[in-house]
Amino acid sequence: MERIWAGWRGAYLSGELSRGKLEPECVLCEIAAVAAEGDIQCRDDELLVVYRGESAVVALNLYPYTSGHLMIVPKTHTSEIDLLSAESRFELLELANRAVKALRVSHGAAGFNIGMNLGRPSGAAIVDHVHLHVVPRYIGDANFMTATADVRVIPEALSDTLGKIRKVWT
What CATH number is attached to the domain comprising 122? Predict the structure, then answer.
């Protein structure tokens, strides 16, 4: 399999793309934090936040595998799920359930991959802040582009995806 160097992703992972007042050390902490000043809706639009729960936030992945790829990010900065409270772990799963329901309606998803990458050997790009991925799957989403060119085609803008999911989120 060929690899394509994507150095621009380094700015995302390092937090250089952070535009807020928070320290850019953890981009997931910035997503999970409530803005201290300014219009929270505007900030949530910028951070692609779908929903803010008690102990976790649902946001679009800035670099999705498919349209509607969501991340559920605990507000607690930790690399281990056992360091989250039982309530936080419960909310992660409840938000995953709500995400599945929303994505079935908003995007007609036919299936889902749901999981966490814990630790660098698992493939985690951000190892210090545990988060849950909800990746909707569609009939035919593994098309020839992925098979022959190792490229994914995302057919809609993130802002459109955000609007569709927010409209049906319950």
Answer: 3.30.428.10
